[in-house]
Write a structure and sequence with these properties.
- About 0% of the residues have low confidence.
- α3 packs across α5 and α7 runs parallel beside α8.
- The protein has a 6-stranded mixed beta sheet.
- The protein has 3 domains: about 60 residues; about 55 residues, no CATH class; about 180 residues, Rossmann fold, CATH 3.40.50.410.
- By secondary structure, it is α/β, with parallel strands linked by helices.
- β5, α5 and β6 form a beta-alpha-beta unit.
- About 35% of the residues lie in helices and about 20% in strands.
Length: about 375
């Protein structure tokens, strides 16, 4: 059984989650969430929810308005809206705190994302019960003996029933308290995410912002499914190199594009640091689809088929729209590597497309 206040709190959290689901596409595009992790609280403005409070009245049947109007009459809207400021309280937007893990769960539920099925020796332990507090009701097997004993002792002392010469403690129903619990995800497997991004001259600030948002939510979902996870970052123009997270999102470069340089860098990174049968490996490449030549695009397909795809759980290619890029690379992948199940592609032209892109990447539960 659950106490009344706990039920109320749970119901309030469900209402909040429902409101977040309604505006999920909008939340996915909020750049200020970037950099949050795990259980850190995030303040989310939620419309249409008011904090519970008592309202006092005179309990009569009269309304609060005055005048000759009756129910159903049309309101007078002829005024110009000009005048002194009002003196009545307005409706404020309620800010609620949720963790990034909760947002990731809402994302998974709304997009109907299956829990990831890891490969290798290490497996996910999907759920476990965690004791989180004390309740006044529960099964006897979860009775908290020390707290129950103290409550009974305190009651007997206060009522004068306690005899120091015969220190016998008799429990009553109101003395008993019980451990409460909740079911939590307990990810076990190790995973690495390798992000690759084209930083050539055709990738401007708008394209990089789309990459930043997409990568953030990819990261959030994977971290919700894995306990031990690493993120590595590779940038490239005609040459590729590993950088840190901040540089990945802020770097400004120019020049041409050779996508195969990033694929070769990712291959070397995996071979040097991550044994494929022990690690769950996720590769993501972000580009506007412009490449230096058809020859290099074919080389990319060969690297994917022969090396990268056999190593990884999934290779996600996300093509962002650019006025300067040809956008042809995604067509090359569809033509030459379309039969590979581990390759998933998506197009992101605006922030609104991030919702569908994430769903495409994770719908298979890899």
């Amino acid at each position: 059984m659950i106490s009344g206040i706990t039920k109320d709190h749970q119901r309030f959290r469900q209402i909040v989650k429902g409101k977040i689901r309604e505006d999920l596409r909008k939340f996915l595009t909020r750049g200020e969430l970037i950099g949050r992790e795990g259980n850190k609280a995030i303040s989310i403005p939620v419309h249409g929810i008011d904090t519970p409070r008592f309202r006092y009245g005179d309990n009569n049947d009269s309304g609060v308005g005055t005048g000759d109007a009756s129910a159903g009459d049309q309101a007078d809207t002829q005024g110009e809206g000009i005048g002194p400021g009002g003196d009545q309280e307005g409706k404020h937007i309620l800010e609620v705190e949720v963790s990034l893990d909760e947002l990731a769960d809402i994302l998974g539920e709304e997009l109907q994302l299956p829990r990831i099925e890891p490969k290798g020796k290490k497996q996910i332990s999907s759920e476990r019960d965690k004791y989180t507090g004390i309740r006044p009701v529960g099964p006897e097997s979860l009775k908290h003996f020390k707290r129950t004993y103290r409550r009974a002792l305190r009651r007997q002392i206060m009522t004068g029933q306690y005899d120091p010469d015969n220190p016998r403690i008799i429990f009553e129903r109101g003395d008993k308290v019980y451990r409460s619990w909740k079911t939590v995800m307990s990810p076990r497997s190790n995973a690495v995410i390798i992000y690759m991004m084209d930083v050539s001259g055709s990738m401007g600030d708008e394209q990089k912002e789309l990459v930043r948002l997409e990568a953030f939510w990819i990261d959030a979902w994977l971290r919700r499914n894995y306990r031990g996870i690493e993120s590595r970052y590779i940038v490239h123009d005609v040459r590729a190199g590993e950088v840190d997270r901040e540089t990945f999102y802020r770097i400004r470069e120019d020049g041409g594009t050779r996508i195969s340089s990033a694929f070769r860098a990712a291959k070397a990174l995996i071979e040097n640091h991550y044994v494929p049968h022990e690690w769950n490996i996720y590769l993501y490449h972000f580009s506007d689809g412009d490449n230096s030549s058809e020859t290099d695009s074919r080389e990319c397909c060969a690297l994917l088929r022969e090396h990268l795809l056999p190593m990884c759980n999934m290779f996600g290619y996300c093509q962002v729209a650019s006025a300067y890029g040809s956008g042809n690379f995604i067509n090359v992948l569809h033509e030459h590597v379309a039969d590979e199940e581990r390759l998933i592609t998506s197009r992101v032209n605006t922030k609104d497309d991030i919702y569908d892109s994430i769903k495409a990447f994770f719908k298979a539960g890899r």
